[in-house]
Amino acid sequence: MNALGPEEILAILPHRYPFLLVDRIQEIVCNEYAIGLKNVTLNEPFFQGHFPHYRVMPGVLVIEAMAQVGGVLVYYSDTVTLGKTPLFTGIDRGKFRRQVTPGDQLIMRLEVIRRRGPVWRVRGQAFVDKALAAEAELQVFLADNTREGHKR
User: Which of 15, 50, 53, 150 is catalytic?
Assistant: First the structure.
């Protein structure tokens, strides 16, 4: 499948600024894997407080960025997605291996482990300069849209 830019990602995920943490999906192979990227800039709002004199992207946001790529993978892998939204619902085996700082490009690779109905398990790895920065197994639930606020 072709790469997805910000507009296509916004059409799938409910996240908006400042919480959309994926700039581009470089590659998707349905039911197998997706590769996404996040350009980490000095202008990120979280750097104001984490930490002003030693800027590090919070690990929980690295995991969230991986979950967002996983959500796009799940959305594209399911057969019926109209009126559905991928939601991050669980994490296992999370590990942080390297700090992510301004100027880094976070490359995330998520692969499908299994699916049970609307619940998917994906394994994610996040890299900076080919060095492993974080890894985790994540759970994504493909929920029916019931709220008025999120429409595609």
Answer: 50
